[in-house]
Amino acid sequence: MLAEIKGINEECGVFGIWGHERAAELTYYGLHSMQHRGQEGAGIVVNDGMELKAHKGLGLVNDVFKHANFSDLTGNVAVGHVRYSTQGGKGVENVQPLLFRSQTGSMALAHNGNLMNEQKLRGELEDEGSILQTSSDTEVLAHLIRRNGMETNEESISSALNKVVGAYAYLILKEDKMFAALDPSGIRPLSIGKLGDAYVVASETCAFDQIGATFIREVLPGELVTISDKGIESTRFAMREQRRMCAMEYVYLSRPDSDLNEVNVHASRKRMGMELAKESPAEADMVIGVPDSSISAAIGFAEESGLPYEMGIIKNRYVGRTFIQPSQELREQGVKLKLAPVRGIVEGKRIVMIDDSIVRGTTSRRIVQMLKEAGAKEVHVRIASPSIQNPCYYGIDMSTRKELIAANNSVDEICEIIGAESVSYLSIDGLEKAIIKDKTLHQGICAACMTGNYPVKESGQTEISYTRC
Amino acid sequence: MLAEIKGINEECGVFGIWGHERAAELTYYGLHSMQHRGQEGAGIVVNDGMELKAHKGLGLVNDVFKHANFSDLTGNVAVGHVRYSTQGGKGVENVQPLLFRSQTGSMALAHNGNLMNEQKLRGELEDEGSILQTSSDTEVLAHLIRRNGMETNEESISSALNKVVGAYAYLILKEDKMFAALDPSGIRPLSIGKLGDAYVVASETCAFDQIGATFIREVLPGELVTISDKGIESTRFAMREQRRMCAMEYVYLSRPDSDLNEVNVHASRKRMGMELAKESPAEADMVIGVPDSSISAAIGFAEESGLPYEMGIIKNRYVGRTFIQPSQELREQGVKLKLAPVRGIVEGKRIVMIDDSIVRGTTSRRIVQMLKEAGAKEVHVRIASPSIQNPCYYGIDMSTRKELIAANNSVDEICEIIGAESVSYLSIDGLEKAIIKDKTLHQGICAACMTGNYPVKESGQTEISYTRC
Amino acid sequence: MLAEIKGINEECGVFGIWGHERAAELTYYGLHSMQHRGQEGAGIVVNDGMELKAHKGLGLVNDVFKHANFSDLTGNVAVGHVRYSTQGGKGVENVQPLLFRSQTGSMALAHNGNLMNEQKLRGELEDEGSILQTSSDTEVLAHLIRRNGMETNEESISSALNKVVGAYAYLILKEDKMFAALDPSGIRPLSIGKLGDAYVVASETCAFDQIGATFIREVLPGELVTISDKGIESTRFAMREQRRMCAMEYVYLSRPDSDLNEVNVHASRKRMGMELAKESPAEADMVIGVPDSSISAAIGFAEESGLPYEMGIIKNRYVGRTFIQPSQELREQGVKLKLAPVRGIVEGKRIVMIDDSIVRGTTSRRIVQMLKEAGAKEVHVRIASPSIQNPCYYGIDMSTRKELIAANNSVDEICEIIGAESVSYLSIDGLEKAIIKDKTLHQGICAACMTGNYPVKESGQTEISYTRC
Amino acid sequence: MLAEIKGINEECGVFGIWGHERAAELTYYGLHSMQHRGQEGAGIVVNDGMELKAHKGLGLVNDVFKHANFSDLTGNVAVGHVRYSTQGGKGVENVQPLLFRSQTGSMALAHNGNLMNEQKLRGELEDEGSILQTSSDTEVLAHLIRRNGMETNEESISSALNKVVGAYAYLILKEDKMFAALDPSGIRPLSIGKLGDAYVVASETCAFDQIGATFIREVLPGELVTISDKGIESTRFAMREQRRMCAMEYVYLSRPDSDLNEVNVHASRKRMGMELAKESPAEADMVIGVPDSSISAAIGFAEESGLPYEMGIIKNRYVGRTFIQPSQELREQGVKLKLAPVRGIVEGKRIVMIDDSIVRGTTSRRIVQMLKEAGAKEVHVRIASPSIQNPCYYGIDMSTRKELIAANNSVDEICEIIGAESVSYLSIDGLEKAIIKDKTLHQGICAACMTGNYPVKESGQTEISYTRC
């Protein structure tokens, strides 16, 4: 939710299950647990052994499936998707999984990530007479697979994947097989679990907990996993590179109860708060966190610093899609949005306010101001991650560089802009310490938005272009 | 939200504003901040000086007003209501404020509370030829006022209030005045604030913070406040008794950022947790709270005990009205509802689990079981209030005595039923210590549901009957 | 439909059935056949022997009941209503049947007609402390009945009916009886039928045909009919006056397949056309009628005159409620509304155009112009009823006198205004000849809107006031 | 409407306009007038000079566009479509115009007709790696055009049209041109008109009258018309064969006010009735028609025979999509569907009942029975077209041969089945006389469903296969 305020938006979550008689229902619950990864649309494709059937729509999982009849969505196999859509691709035709039928069989695709060479590939396909119906880069992969022959198999998928460049996690379903594929740098998360005899694949492990499944392992960078009634098989479509899991998944995007690369997200955030307390302590009466994503780091900061942790900001849980935003005039008169300070707590106090990140700075400024108006004596802002100075080309919809406050201002300037007594960011070292438990397992993270060091580039490109998830 | 699981449901919140040109919009935001007090229906009546106009509907404030045109709801005065409805009174005709028109003028009523003699009064009115159109006890008061003559004034309202018995907070609007009235024991909360020159009245002070208004004072027990263009006037319709504010408002119902009787709710909850840690410590590795209402007490318990506070249970924020509940079979296979344990945190640990109250015990058992399945070694349940053993007749929809686990079982039995290593409740003394700052101001609380000591009874009644809010 | 163009609007149709196990469903079909009598709202109240239950809503019968579950609307007895609402009374609370509950029983009322002294009665009731919830005059009758004692019986109903003045047909339902009442002049239609052992009452006999019931007799002026499990009983609440059935029911309002006073409506309209051909023949090539209500008269005119009857105007059957009306500019460019001329038929021809009535004249002018633009050489307008010069106070929503073209213009002026070659109206004698078969049965009609001779007046009134249906 | 009862369903109507600033609105009105050609879905694609934009949906034109904002659908050019969908193709993705975007431009297609070799062409396209997204044969044509090169021009369209076999009328829109094409036998109707300087193309001329446009000429068999800012140009993509306009368009499908091949539909139907009266007179008291499509023929029969024309059957105008069909049990008890007999007219009379056609015979039997139950002494059924004994492969969704009553029964047997006193059909000669004014213009009609003589066959086919519109 806060995402909308911040301007960091995850793009999509995928879920697949093979071999459970209530596949569609379990996919519903799995998608539900990953709702934070995309609120614009949701869909499920089931395979009842005879044909693939889709139920998709715009909106939250709840809304899309409120009139769904799961007894119509029979079959032991399903793939699902929750979608965050960028401007311009909001049509229902872009809601995934995309389902393609032909006289010889069907194929469904669900994707989390971003292809950097999508426009080029699209142009080439059209030149050969193909008609593309969506603005989704997922459709481009489907055409590449089909152009390799009517058969959807390991070979044609591998060949197609070798043509695309970017960060991606794909689920591909056909009548007799389900495929899971991860980009060669392993930037996006994708895990495999089991539920009884059934196999489950999901963007986040919280989906496994949601349905009572057990985590088995992560899909590896450059790996193509095939799941069928014969079990699970693995091939490699690209040389495995050093895994570079997206740091923002830990900092902000994933759910606290998920494990990424076997590291719990809440625990890593708490460690970020602890590292931050070591690096940048503050003289204050209490620590508060900006709900919801900064609570873990705030608890960590409080524990490390010995300051009491308090509930100084409250979030209105009922601010839904139809909430009428107060006009500028009313906001100036003091009408609050979804966050409100707790006057009885903050009045007269020196406060350490923990936030997970700052994008444009407008939200931070508003919260600091809110706290001051409620009587806070001092507000020391501590950010539990390094500053974001670069755009992401791997599937996260951030603001452009022009809008990124840290790309254009020093920390002192930021402090002045947001009106705090002091501002500090966690160092990149502190971040790595908090995330990486074991260097063998976890060779690195992608922190390109903080460091500018991009692990994947389109060959020969002069500029990194951003298209869509 | 958890309320639905627990079976404790607040009944209604009221809001009124006199003298602001954007009265309807401010009422919308005010109601929004009190959405937790009632999710079944909402309404606003505006007074544009010429006539009273209503916009009402079933559902959340967001839903009811998503197509509202505030430019049609003009006027400097408005009253609003959020409603929780008991079984049987779910029709839209029961959504408040109730608006009554006549050839000589209109009257709108909004109510939070419960009349104990509503059935008797209804029968008497019907015997005299009155036709009542709703099953709401608020309509009964309207008829009593009208029977006192066509004029809606202090006299006719006072006379009508003297006929009703119960716990109540009323807002009554007519063309030239707004009235606020509180029952003689002051069981339900009702506060007065100011926003510039405008007067505001609300069930909870969080509504004042929401719109930028300043708290002035509480409406007093037995007081009838009149607000008009001439300002604010006060009369007394009943002898003031010792104020007995509902303890459950502090324990569970109100928002943490509200002040009741000038006591902040979060702070009082944190003190409940601290008192509980003193009364009933536990050998454990961490303290966790059941979200959302028990977080404050859990922080207090952690601070007092020196144990780390952890996020051991996570709540899915996207579980909305249309969420498809998992079947019994799926739940047994491990499909979670809106609460989920964080395996990475609780695995192998001894846990103090703080909850604010136990009603039927089914939710507590489910959460304990969830934590154990996620690997918790021990679960020590600590309840931050005394046990609930009696029904409420003053406007809270609790389970019947037969369903109340504490009415029928000892603490040891409860411990066995819910499968915990140990269970302790806060003492009534501990509760009073946590709530009452100043005995002069705060002569007492109503804790009838815990102690059986009911402050208000219908004269001559042999049994306390419960009707509706 | 055309009604909306014309500005003549029937107000309401009623239907009741006693003693059929599928009472609600049959009421649905009965109301459906009377949909032309009111398109603003519809409702059914069933009596399952224990309690009265209502299902009501705004819109067409189809829309209101599309989600109705008839298995919830069980019971052998039902009353229903279709409503046309005047400006200002469009709220769903005004949709009938009105249902009033009390501790001693319930009462439902459905009404077709208009009370002339409604405002006066309403004021008196309010002075006595009654609260009225709707702007419907039907509620006034309910209060009058209740004021006569809690029992709803022949006596209290008769006494209440003697206080109201106007034209009305009521159905009143309580747990053990259904009552049907007609005003002392019998201005509005109301008939009794049988379906097996069940009794049926309806505004029009087409409702009997719709459900396979047989016509028994009409309710008589001033009669109160009681239907119960004991059968049918009749009392008289007023001296029977000469029956004065509304002439507009024959001319325009009723369905052609209904019989009113045992006279078939289509046949009477055909006779109006024949009388008109005798009174005002025209030199022409063909006769055409304005669909739908003028077709019968056009056939009659053609048959009498020997001219061929042609389909010169076609009506678009798909013009529904959401049809986007063409802007003035587009209409001037030739974009048609729901009526269109058939160029292939009218081009180069001299035409007799039959219409049932002219209210404001704007529609007639538009149709004549349309025919001319499509190539008609001459258009001779023949109106199959006398000219309307006076408002109706008995339940038909006509334009005010100021708007009535015939109240302010001579026939020659009208001819010029609408651009026809000639215009003639049927004489009042011709109308009576066409309607009245048997003077004993049919002592007269109410043609006040044509003649100014009003059969019912409020005693002592200085001006006839119009309120609502 | 009756279509649904009968089982004859037109498939689609098309409309296009080039050069009017309110193109989308005029298309709305044009489609509206052709609503009878398809009620399952509707759509408009506008061209604002920069890009093509679509607004489409399931349902009636009214419903699809009720929330449309025509100020968003700007542009001087638009094409529209109303769709009747066969089982299995009901998804919104099949609603036309289909819109295909590519990096070099867009193309929209609207189609009325049926391709007989669609399955074969679809298979060939898929073998070459194409992905088709709909089950519409219109998409097949789009792929054929694109495969001919990225340019959508006369050449690539002509080449694609020469690959398809069937009956069709296409509108194709690209940024700078609009194309209209008709199959080589001219089976489906398609006309060109003008509105000021704008060109209009439509399936029926009633669309021209609706918007005030003037008829210019029909598109010729095998002609490809190009409309652009340079005006109108014509090329021939196939040798012109003898025009064989579908006879059912005259008999039943088209609106009475349309002209097909410059023959007015109402007039041709009236002549069918007259021919029928000459061929098969009957001793009777009156002539009645089954509304709405048989009224013209009934008037013709009455005029020729000298018998009076009466309104013996009435159609309920309010039977909409959500009408709850009476159960078999209720129908047996006499509850009527949308047609009802007028007892007051038919009782005791000998009746000639005119219908335009009989498909399965069930409706005819029901109507005859209804008339008898209402007291008709004799019912002589006269059908104003020859009997239908063969399926249609050219775009009309008729019942299969097995269901066609006339394919399996003699006229005497039909008479017995439907319970009439006598049954006669119009002869094929009589039909041709009624339709064909001028043999030069109108070389013939397609009456394959009556005669079995199919004008278009897929080369080398052993069986004629039916796919979809």
From TrEMBL, chains A, B, C, D:
Free-text cofactor note: Binds 1 Mg(2+) ion per subunit.
Assigned protein family: In the C-terminal section; belongs to the purine/pyrimidine phosphoribosyltransferase family.
Entry annotated with the keyword Metal-binding: yes
Record: residues binding Mg(2+): 293, 355-356
Catalytic reactions of this protein: 5-phospho-beta-D-ribosylamine + L-glutamate + diphosphate = 5-phospho-alpha-D-ribose 1-diphosphate + L-glutamine + H2O
Database matches in Pfam families: GATase_6 (PF13522), Pribosyltran (PF00156)
Start and end residues of each Glutamine amidotransferase type-2 domain: 12-230
GO BP term, pick one: purine nucleobase biosynthetic process
Binding site for [4Fe-4S] cluster: 246, 392, 446, 449
Active site location: 12
Protein name as annotated: Amidophosphoribosyltransferase
Organism: Virgibacillus salinus
